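Contributing new records

If you add data, match the layout below exactly. Sequence lines come first and carry their own label; structure lines follow with theirs. Keep one chain per record. Anything else will be rejected by the validation script.
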Amino acid sequence: MKIVDIKVGRISIPLKKPFKTAVSTVYDVNNVLVKIITDTGNIGYGEAPPTGIITGDTAGGIIGAIEDHIKKNLIGMDIENFEEIMQRLNKSVIKNNSAKAAIDIALYDLHGQFYKAPVYKLLGGYRKEITTDLTISVNDPEEMAKDSIEAVKLGYKTLKIKVGKDVAMDVKRMRAIRLAVGYDVALRIDADQGWTPKEAVVNLRKIENAGIGIEFVEQPVPGYDLDGLKFVTDNVSMPVLADESTFSPMDAMKIMQMRAADLINIKLMKTGGIHNALKICTIAETYGVECMIGCLLESKISVTAAVHLAAARGIITKIDLDGPMLCKEDPIDGGAIFKDSKITVTDDHGFGIKGINGVVWKE
């Protein structure tokens, strides 16, 4: 099964509701897709969201990295030589993790097809079903409470709350949500790198003292500030999850060695795909640090890949893979089965992606 061509395309999917954080509002998923074509007729699909504010990757940059650097290093390679392919992929261009992730996902899809097995079984086969949280966008407290009630009615038992710059208003938001959904629903908060270390400690202590009950806080300080992240971890009671601080296996190991965070968030678009994400899982297993797996605004293609990784490895104990559930439409034929909070992998070969509607592939 040799690689004979790699094509890129674009897809646009409207969201059910605007996705609001403290720094942006998004109305559509507009992502880059890839398909790797082999001499046997097998096709592997991958996806990358141009999330410049987090990964630094733009749509043009993703396409350029694939067409100008990655493609020429992989054409002619045999899927059977998987480790060499991965070495070539990761050496073909520095950074550009989203582009690498799209290709990595398509390659793992083909890897599963080559061995006639679902990817989650090749990676460990720990379970078939996982349960995700649902993200509640930043709005006024009443609207967020209403959105939370709707989520709970759909069966979600864990909600991730986006917080803003005004901690007093955030406390009002979370109090409204807690009052609306009760204490049987777990609440997580995502600060999106919005505070300085001292602000984070002050704000999180206010939230703790409000008695709302928070499972953990995600990335309270800028991703580059590991000392600041450790300061927060050492000075608040609630667990701290490192998200934007963790791109590479080396990042994860340094955080664990410093004890800068209690939990690690794996996102394929940060790691450059499954190959490096697996290394983070192994490091986390060594240090005894549980992981969450998350996504950006992605469709079912790349989220299915993340689902297979989560289904394969027991160290991934927390799931934040609600991207497809935020989309108004599903143009993807096949892949994981999303039923509100429950996500199930199939035993189709690879990731089971059979086709994608509404894509114009670049010639």
